[in-house]
């Protein structure tokens, strides 16, 4: 591993006049924002988006000067032991590299709980005054904008310098972090962070973090392929005795294997990767079934306590309406690596959504990013949202804008009370902005939100009946 990641140097030159001016602007912006003002300039978009989360969503006290203890013990499970071991090795190597530069290296788990720190002893003692030490929580929800917690909210490395930290007690620190993500679910597994007190970090640090993350993610990818082999083996044992639609899913609800009946039901081509076993995560398809990911998470949680567990849910399948589906876990060494999903069967524990029907508090604005500037939008300005994997693009009256929030599910949750509806696995539409409805030659349904713009939003067959009802067509 030492040969794959070059030595890390974090020393930076003395800041010039422009850098000091920028820092002063950020400090003034933080002072205004922390007292309740809304701002759109002088702060980098990813930092400003984090400030909005910290102030309006998480309600983190900006006067905080120490991270709180991690809430309880989060067991990451034996499957992540190898990843944490490799991260610890990288942290120790980097800590040795930065010791003379007054740096501290920290590794956290996926909840932002620090697992270990390395580096300059005096800097580590200073960091401990802010509770930058093992078993403290550095998620944004607990400790505001910082390299560890904010890395979970963005793609790639993130730097947080001086007053860019949401909490005033950390304004003397500069830090940079990157999240290690599960290639199957997209959720954060861990993070690695570099910090320095009273000085900036070298511009080389984000590149080093990217290389470090790539090294760890090779192990994450290898594990995902290995899990798929176990899932396919379980599927082959089961499908010979099952005549109905049968699907093998990974932990994220994506299709690893499917029989012919399931391929037809899910409208996948006969030669889709799932027909032979989709070993590579990038090859796997996600069915256009709105609740499937939630149901798989629910099933995995139940199965973690009892490997013999089974349960069922009513799933909306395009062309078939609500179809019962029974899920049974696929386990390896006591951990859940996937699910067998048999459509048409109704066995075991029924699925029930906790908190169904409760109102979700809505933000007063939609936050987007364009040209290194944060854009504050009224929900009525957004015509529709389109997902490109976890990246979401907003089509608005001000043009096409990148959403500050990752994942269409999260955008859907934030906008559903403003008249937005999911019409496709990749599209969310503001029904108040639908001006025209177009029918395809084969009965397909398309929505037009602005007749002046040649854009058609497809409606999947599963969502079409509800959209017709809501639009009165």
Automatic annotation (TrEMBL):
PROSITE patterns referenced in this protein's UniProt entry, alphabetically: HTH_LYTTR (PS50930)
A Pfam cross-reference name: LytTR
Keywords noted in UniProt: DNA-binding
N-terminal signal peptide: none
TM segment ranges: none
HTH LytTR-type domain segment(s): 367-473
Keyword DNA-binding: yes
Record's compositionally biased regions (Polar residues): 11-20
Region (Disordered): 1-20
GO molecular function, one term: DNA binding
Protein name listed in UniProt: DNA-binding protein
Organism, scientific name: Saccharopolyspora aridisoli
């Amino acid at each position: 591993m030492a040969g794959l990641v070059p030595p890390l140097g974090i020393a930076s030159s003395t800041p010039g006049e422009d850098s000091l001016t920028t820092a002063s602007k950020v400090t003034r912006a933080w002072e205004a924002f922390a007292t309740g003002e809304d701002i759109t300039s002088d702060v980098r978009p990813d930092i400003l988006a984090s400030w909005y989360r910290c102030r309006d969503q998480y309600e983190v006290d900006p006067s905080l000067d120490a991270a709180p203890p991690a809430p309880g013990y989060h067991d990451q499970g034996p499957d992540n032991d190898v990843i944490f071991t490799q991260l610890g090795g990288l942290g120790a190597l980097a800590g040795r590299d930065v010791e003379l530069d007054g740096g501290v290296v920290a590794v956290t788990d996926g909840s932002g709980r620090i697992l270990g720190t390395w580096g300059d002893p005096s800097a580590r003692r200073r960091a401990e005054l802010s509770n930058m030490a093992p078993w403290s929580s550095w998620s944004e929800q607990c400790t505001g904008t910082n390299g560890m917690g904010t890395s979970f909210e963005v793609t790639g490395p993130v730097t947080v310098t001086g007053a860019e930290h949401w909490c005033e007690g950390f304004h003397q620190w500069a830090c940079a972090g990157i999240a290690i993500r599960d290639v199957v679910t997209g959720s954060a597994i861990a993070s690695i962070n570099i910090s320095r007190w009273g000085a900036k970090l070298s511009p080389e640090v984000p590149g080093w973090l990217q290389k470090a993350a790539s090294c760890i993610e090779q192990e994450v990818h290898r594990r995902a392929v290995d899990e798929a082999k176990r899932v396919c083996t379980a599927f082959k044992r089961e499908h010979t005795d099952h005549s109905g639609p049968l699907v093998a899913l990974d932990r994220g609800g994506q299709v690893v294997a499917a029989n012919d009946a399931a391929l037809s039901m899910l409208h996948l081509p006969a030669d889709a990767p799932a027909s032979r076993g989709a070993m590579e995560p990038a090859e796997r398809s996600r069915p256009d079934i709105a609740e499937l990911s939630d149901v798989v998470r629910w099933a995995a949680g139940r199965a973690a306590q009892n490997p013999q567990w089974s349960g069922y849910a009513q799933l909306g399948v395009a062309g078939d309406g609500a179809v019962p589906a029974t899920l049974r876990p696929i386990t390896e060494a006591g951990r859940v690596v996937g699910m067998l999903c048999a459509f048409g069967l109704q066995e075991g524990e029924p699925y029930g959504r906790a908190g169904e029907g409760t109102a979700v508090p809505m933000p007063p604005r939609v936050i987007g990013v364009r040209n290194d500037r944060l854009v504050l939008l009224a929900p009525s300005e957004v015509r529709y949202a389109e997902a490109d994997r976890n990246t979401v693009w907003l089509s608005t009256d001000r043009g096409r804008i990148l959403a500050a929030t990752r994942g269409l599910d999260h955008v859907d949750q934030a906008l559903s009370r403003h008249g937005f509806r999911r019409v496709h696995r990749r599209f969310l539409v503001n029904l108040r902005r639908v001006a025209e409805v177009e029918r395809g030659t084969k009965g397909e349904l398309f929505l037009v939100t602005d007749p002046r713009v040649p854009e058609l939003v497809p409606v999947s067959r599963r969502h079409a009946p509800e959209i017709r009802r809501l639009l009165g067509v």
